[in-house]
Amino acid sequence: MTSLFRGTSIVTGASTGIGFEFADELASRGMNLVVVARNTEKLEQVAQLLRSKHGVLVEVLTADLSDREQIDTVAQRASKDDIDLIINNAGFGLNESFFDNSVEAEQKLLDVLVTAVMRISHAALPGMRNRNRGGIINVSSVAGWMSSGTYSAAKSWVTTFSESMTMQLRDTDVHVMALCPGFTRTEFQDRAGMETETIPDWMWLDAGQLVRDALTDFAGRQPVSVPSIQYKALGLVAQYAPRPIVRLLSVMSRSR
Ligand SMILES: NC(=O)c1ccc[n+]([C@@H]2O[C@H](COP(=O)([O-])OP(=O)(O)OC[C@H]3O[C@@H](n4cnc5c(N)ncnc54)[C@H](OP(=O)(O)O)[C@@H]3O)[C@@H](O)[C@H]2O)c1
Question: Which domains does the chain show, CATH number per domain?
Answer without folding.
Answer: 2-252 (3.40.50.720)
